[in-house]
Amino acid sequence: MFEQINGKVVKVHAGRAGGVVARTGAMLFYTGDVSFSPHQVPGAGQMGGLGGMMGMAGRMMAGEHERTMMAQGNGEVHYGFAGLETHIVNMHPGAVLRVEASRLLANTAGLQSSVVSVMSSGGQGGRGGGIMGAIRGAAAGALTGAGMFTTQLSGQGSAVLLGHGGFIELTIGQYPVVVDPQAFVAAYGNVQTELKTALSWRDAVGRGSGEAMQLHCTGQGVVYVQASEEKL
Asked: Which of 59, 76, 78, 226 is deepest in the core (most CB within 10 A)?
């Protein structure tokens, strides 16, 4: 549904795509009769009104979710953002795309979307999932600069990723793919992720580097890595 114009710009026919959700500020220009309205990913910030740790997790979730706009109508829209490289992922039923919110440019509106904790993806690591997993992972997120929540897309449609310096596609095979969290963009397929400490807590404190924390990816699918550790 999306068409690559060059390495940094894609276009899509909003009507044929059934609507397009894109991060605010990503629309470059359009032709035809297209309207735009605010859109929110289900689950983003829904816990912001709660107290204690759940309220904290809600604020974390809201802070790591990019504002988005819905495009609808009969016309073509061109998207790009900050001169970053783009990559189209065509999705199929049964597969899941988990992508850092800041690295998702746009997706077709028919995809099911939610916000999930990176700590609970696949339920591994012994840290627990959901709210508690997110809270336990907050220190790791502060050290690495990586988001503790990712956008999860499923269904049939397509999405566009953003990255610095282009993308590397790594196929998960017999052994896990271990990624610097700051270079991680997305995982597609049946992929489980687990954030692990590579160094002792005493060694890691104060360094703030991706080497202190590593994202282990297992299962079947593809991991997308950007050719940079620069955070978007």
From this structure: 226
